[in-house]
UniProtKB/TrEMBL annotation:
Record lineage: Bacteria, Bacillati, Actinomycetota, Actinomycetes, Micrococcales
Biased composition (Polar residues): 46-57
A Pfam family this chain is assigned to: LysM
Annotated spans, Disordered: 44-63
SUPFAM superfamilies: LysM domain
Full protein name: LysM repeat protein/phage tail protein X
Record domain LysM: where: 75-119, 141-191, 214-259
PANTHER family: LYSM DOMAIN-CONTAINING GPI-ANCHORED PROTEIN 2 (PTHR33734), MEMBRANE-BOUND LYTIC MUREIN TRANSGLYCOSYLASE D (PTHR33734:SF22)
Organism of provenance: Pseudarthrobacter defluvii
């Protein structure tokens, strides 16, 4: 059979799965792992993901030193001769009033050379009232979510984008999706990335027809962190999908890493499947209790219905449900897992 898998060294699309709810089901009874999993990694030989650093590379028109976080965001600026509060604010696309407020100053205040200005809130703000830890440079590192916190409040307080927050936590998204919430009271979340080797992430990828990477072959410098940031998979997930790997051992170059559950049956996706010569799933036969979103997650499919359009009628997919509100599928149905090899049948 001609395989649907494609091998590539270019970055692939990652599926935005509802990890919080799904991973709870996935890991139940299998491993005592959590969504916010952060295993320690061996020291990298060459670092590319930056740790918070001090740099003289300020915005054009400013010559003072900056302190940047692991994403390159400038959190602090040390003024040089001739700098004004207004000029600093404009350079970093903030209002003068905000920069003044972050630093306990009045707008228009004269700032002498050598003044270290904060470019983000100094403490709890609306939507981010919890406790944070920081490093020696003042860069926020970890945060515990409070009951009334919001994604907007947290990203504003810590000078991050939603995408950066998701990457730091090795998850596909940080916003609410399908009644799945990353921002939950009591959750300890990461605000920065760990350093990774500059050689990491350049291995060959085998993608399914939806663009999801199913397998990745490691290169020198790859680690659980580099894989987690690139493919938005926690160390717990990678270990679960690849039982021969160990969290306390380096990953040898040439290791073929599975990035979806695939052969691992999970709650709500207990059926059997077929695959092509590259190991890319092609079809799936539903089992009792299977849930549509769980099947999609198990096989890295973000458009399951698109691969199963009805040949007649206007329904989203031809397959039938035992319980439509919950997404429970009728057992015994063979459905397509490949966008380029769809199964089309009349609507039930």
């Amino acid at each position: 059979m001609v395989g649907t898998g494609t091998t590539s060294k270019t970055p692939s699309k990652r599926v935005a799965w509802p990890h919080t709810g799904v991973i709870v089901l996935l890991l139940a009874g299998l491993a005592g792992c959590t969504y916010a999993d952060h295993a320690a990694e061996p020291a990298a030989a060459v670092q590319s993901t930056s740790v918070p650093t001090t740099s003289s590379a300020a915005k054009p028109g400013l010559s003072g030193e900056t302190v940047r976080d692991s994403f390159g965001n400038v959190d602090f600026y040390t003024t040089a001769a001739g700098d004004t509060l207004a000029a600093v604010a404009k350079a970093y696309k903030l209002s003068e009033a905000k920069v003044a407020g972050f630093n306990g100053l009045q707008p228009g205040a004269v700032i002498p050379a050598g003044t270290k200005l904060r470019l983000m809130p100094a403490g709890p703000t609306r939507g981010a009232m919890g406790a944070a830890t920081g490093d020696v440079n003042g860069i926020p590192m970890d945060y515990t979510v409070e009951p009334d916190d919001s994604l907007a409040g947290i990203t504003y307080r810590f000078n991050l984008t939603e995408e950066q927050l998701a990457e730091a936590n090795k998850v596909p998204f940080a916003y609410e999706k399908g009644n799945v919430f990353f921002i939950q009271a009591g959750r300890a979340i990461r605000l920065q990335k760990n350093p990774v080797d500059s050689r990491s992430g350049s291995g060959a990828e085998v993608n399914n027809s939806f663009g999801q990477t199913v397998f990745y072959t490691t290169v020198d410098g790859d680690s659980f962190d580099s894989l987690g940031y690139k493919f938005r998979s926690t160390t717990a997930q990678i270990l679960l999908y690849n039982p021969s790997m160990a969290a306390d051992q380096p990953i040898p170059a040439g290791t073929k890493v599975r990035l979806i559950p695939g052969e691992l049956k999970i709650e709500g996706a207990q059926g059997t499947f077929t695959a092509d010569a590259n190991g890319i799933p092609l079809t799936y036969t539903t089992a009792p209790g299977d849930i549509e979103r769980q099947v999609a997650f198990r096989f890295g499919v973000d458009q399951l219905r698109s691969a199963n359009r009805p040949s007649t009628g206007t329904a989203g997919a031809w397959y039938d449900f035992a319980d439509l509100p919950s997404g429970e599928l009728l057992p015994g149905q063979t459905i397509s897992l490949a966008l380029d090899k769809p199964i089309n049948k009349p609507s039930p």
